[in-house]
Write a structure and sequence with these properties.
Strand content: 5-15%
Radius of gyration: 18 Å
Number of strands: 2
Number of helices: 6
Order of helices and strands: HHHHHEEH
Structural class: mainly alpha
Number of domains: 1
């Protein structure tokens, strides 16, 4: 199996684009996450049979993910992971379900062997916003606090 492709932030931190400017073109039109992960999806209906358990699993996964890893672009991936965990815990899982869960958790840096492969912090979204001028630091906790304040304001 080939090596994992490095993120734009990893290349910037290592100075790859200065040494090989032609490599930067591959990242020029790369999509960027637009915001935080957010609340569980509406299909996890708390009044439904499985909804309450799926919502609890969503919060468990999000709370255990390393800060700065999950963004709005990862919502479907987290939903799929929640459904796999639900199947393993409450239904009749097959051996392939465990392998799928292991792969899904690895992509979110939620197992020891895959954690070093995911870089967050300076230059990584959403802990920092990647712009045309390079990484721009943002305060994720301030953004979350502002989001919470906006939810609690009366309309």
């Amino acid at each position: 199996m080939g090596r994992r492709r490095q993120t734009e932030a990893e290349h910037r931190l290592k100075g790859t684009f200065e040494k090989h400017p032609e490599r930067e073109a591959a990242y020029k039109n790369m999509p960027k996450p637009k915001g935080p992960l957010g609340d569980p999806p509406p299909c996890f209906d708390p009044n439904g049979y499985t909804g309450e358990k799926l919502i609890a699993i969503w919060h468990e996964v999000v709370s255990q993910a390393p800060p700065g890893v999950l963004t709005s672009s990862d919502r479907l991936h987290v939903e799929m992971t929640c459904r796999l965990i639900y199947k393993i815990r409450h239904l009749s899982p097959k051996s392939g379900d465990f392998a799928k869960l292991e792969a899904a958790l690895g992509k979110m840096a939620m197992n020891p062997s895959d954690r070093p492969k995911v870089q967050v912090g300076a230059g990584a979204a959403p802990a920092a916003l990647i712009t045309e001028n390079g990484p721009q630091e943002t305060n994720v906790f301030e953004e979350l606090a502002e989001e919470e304040r906006s939810r609690s304001r009366p309309n």
